[in-house]
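Renewal narrative, Specific Aim 1. Our central claim is that a sequence can be written position by position from structural information alone. The example that follows is taken directly from our test logs and has not been curated for this report. It begins with the structure tokens describing the chain, in the order in which they were read.
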């Protein structure tokens, strides 16, 4: 990497040649530089001296970003007694009904994710995934048996005979 003084000297020479009628790309090719490198050197952010490339990049701060006080107020509201069980998709409409706007739904989800609270927010247990029982496959005789319990009617109403039988599918 070149020093700041060398850059300024090269920029002066390239500027002089471009003012004389040369193209930037041709002037840079004679020196052995890329035209994009020279354009980056000319940028006002890069006039601060001999810094690393990553230090020179502009960091944009959004104008509508929540301040730290607003973030804390939103988190306190999300963790309040009446809203602690609800997801942001239900909190935002409830606050809108009251005439309050704290942040968008996606911002509230982002805040909960940053503090590690983007999990099941209700008191009951998380619903467990249910699966079908595994299918039994018989590859030969006398491998699968099932019980059939039948209710057989009697002459007296409400009393049944229980009959158990073993069913062999083969």
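The sequence written for that structure reads:
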């Amino acid at each position: 990497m070149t020093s700041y003084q060398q850059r300024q000297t090269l920029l002066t020479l390239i500027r002089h040649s471009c003012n004389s009628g040369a193209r930037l790309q041709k002037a840079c090719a004679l020196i052995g530089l890329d035209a994009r490198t020279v354009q980056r050197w000319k940028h006002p952010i890069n006039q601060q001296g001999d810094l690393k490339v990553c230090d020179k990049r502009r960091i944009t701060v959004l104008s509508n970003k929540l301040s730290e006080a607003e973030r804390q107020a939103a988190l306190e509201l999300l963790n309040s007694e009446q809203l602690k069980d609800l997801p942001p998709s239900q909190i935002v409409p409830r606050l809108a009904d009251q005439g309050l706007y704290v942040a968008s739904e996606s911002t509230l989800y982002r805040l909960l994710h940053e503090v590690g609270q983007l999990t099941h927010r209700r008191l009951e247990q998380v619903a467990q995934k249910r699966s079908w029982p595994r299918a039994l496959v018989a590859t030969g005789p006398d491998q699968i048996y099932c019980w059939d319990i039948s209710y057989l009617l009697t002459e007296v109403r409400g009393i049944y005979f229980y009959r158990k039988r073993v069913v062999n599918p083969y």
